[in-house]
Design brief:
168 residues, mainly alpha, 7 helices, 64% helix, TAT leader-containing periplasmic protein
């Protein structure tokens, strides 16, 4: 067997396996909202990594802040223009799809099974990528998460910001 034949066969076998796993892996169906798919689980994995240092240290308060931010993300997505919603949903669908993960992150390991260090490395790779598309994906996710987190008045105290008072 020639080396070239072996390499082409290995490449074709890997591609077929990746496609087969993507097409025939069981999908876990979570209840969806009437408006469409809810990406709460995906964002719950990304939030602790993207908000590292901003979340409270106490576990109960941290969980409450994450849940409040997840609700704010849903509200933020709802007010985005249709074109931006479509792009965001395409990105989120790719992050939930194994073949999409392979394209975006060079790994088929689901985000739920990755450690925070691996998620941080993935996001930093996107941030410093030569591909403008990956940089845009990073910035879009980061801005959405940050804007949603700091849109909640209960998170302003960590910035030492107080709501302006209107004079009567």
């Amino acid at each position: 067997m020639k080396r070239r034949t072996f390499l082409m066969g290995a490449f074709a076998g890997t591609a077929a396996l990746a496609l087969g796993v993507n097409l025939y892996s069981p999908e876990f169906s979570l209840p969806e909202d009437s408006e469409g798919k809810d990406y709460r689980l995906l964002f719950s994995v990304l939030l602790p990594v993207m908000l590292d240092g901003a979340l409270p240290d106490v576990a109960i308060h941290k969980l409450a802040a994450q849940n409040r931010t997840l609700d704010a993300i849903k509200q933020s997505i709802a007010v985005l223009p249709d074109e931006q919603q479509t792009e965001l949903f395409e990105l989120l669908d790719m992050l939930e799809n194994r073949l999409g993960l392979l394209v975006l992150t060079s790994s088929m390991t689901p985000l739920l099974m990755r450690s925070p260090a691996e998620l941080t490395e993935m996001l930093e790779t996107w941030r410093h990528s030569y591909f403008a598309l990956l940089q845009t994906a990073y910035l879009g996710l980061r801005e959405l998460v940050m804007a949603s987190y700091y849109a909640c008045p209960e998170h302003w105290s960590r910035l030492h910001y107080a709501k302006p008072e209107l004079f009567k």
